[in-house]
What we know:
alpha/beta
Amino acid sequence: MSASGPVGVALVGAGNISGQYLGNLTKFPDVKVLAVADIDEARAAQAAAEYGVEASGTPESVFEIPDVEIVVNLTVPAVHAQVALEALRAGKHVYGEKPLALDPASGRAVLAEAAERGLRVGNAPDTFLGAGIQSARRAVEAGLIGEPVAATVALESMGPEGWHPNPAFFYVDGAGPLFDMGPYYLTALVSLLGPVAAVAATARRARTTRVVGSGPLAGTEFPVEVPTHVTALLEFAAGYGANTTFSFDSPAGKRLLELGGTEATLALPDPNTFGGPLLIRSPRDEEWRELPIEGTEAGRGIGVLDMARALRSGVAHRASGELGLHVLDVMATIIASADAGGFQKVAGEVAATDALPASWDPYEATL
Length: 367
Ligand SMILES: NC(=O)c1ccc[n+]([C@@H]2O[C@H](COP(=O)([O-])OP(=O)(O)OC[C@H]3O[C@@H](n4cnc5c(N)ncnc54)[C@H](O)[C@@H]3O)[C@@H](O)[C@H]2O)c1
């Protein structure tokens, strides 16, 4: 493995989201995409050809490429931990899509394997590193809302089967509105307010089956195995509160992420995006005011790039496995609370990471 120059990367999982990663990672000069893998080798070959990537094949075959330093794991949640462990055992750092694993014990096993081998784990989402949420963080740190008090989250829709051609995995263990969309909101909140100490929740499921809405499988019925409407109160270690709703049972639809303080409230951008708008409103304002945002809007893969650069310079990367594990702990505790009732303590903690400098440029060659 080279210890200088661009960091070699291989993608495992050439499905729906892989195009966004390939489109971006092949344009960032500090990483070099060397291979694409999938259990469906033809799919991997097609993705590799489309983005000018030299090699493709099975996951095992790309783990054997010596110059691959980071494996980017874009498989479905059910195999996130298994693929991560295989990559680590092959001596590769891993950066995975969310959630880190299906359950906290599997997530801890991934982090333990990495620690034992002196390897890194990174985890999506990296949207919180985008201009929108980073500018919100700078606004909070500059005191624009006074002292934070509480956050409000509403992620409400009828679910992804209207647009995703293969949506059954959104309704099994590891997904549902909480595990699929929760990481965007919870990661943004943890990056702004620090770790969550305790949660209390309710959960329900309005339908036991759903129907594929587009693509070759349109009209096919599939089972719903997870709660599809989750409400949770969060208590942060620093004392702040949040009331949150994650729903695929909401006909009206809503996306809201607000952070109220003693002086003003921030309305943050959709945390599944990298840009704005970022709005603020104080009691003196008749309308929301838009704040300027600064930073990168390059899109999915900036967390991989931050990890690659951190690998070369020996500093901590931001979209870390530890952050992914904390978010997974919060989500698992929300489900435990919905089952058992009452407030439940969240195991584990997570250290704060530095904000991304506003001038951080993914298109600059620094290595
Ligand atoms: N689709 C989106 O808009 C979106 C957005 C953000 C994040 N994500 C996350 O990205 C991940 C993938 O989502 P997707 O929509 O691309 O799913 P997908 O089903 O379209 O693609 C997953 C791919 O992984 C492959 N795969 C499955 N098991 C494998 C294994 N053991 N080894 C190698 N390859 C394997 C499948 O063959 C498939 O090509 C999920 O964790 C999801 O939460 C998806």
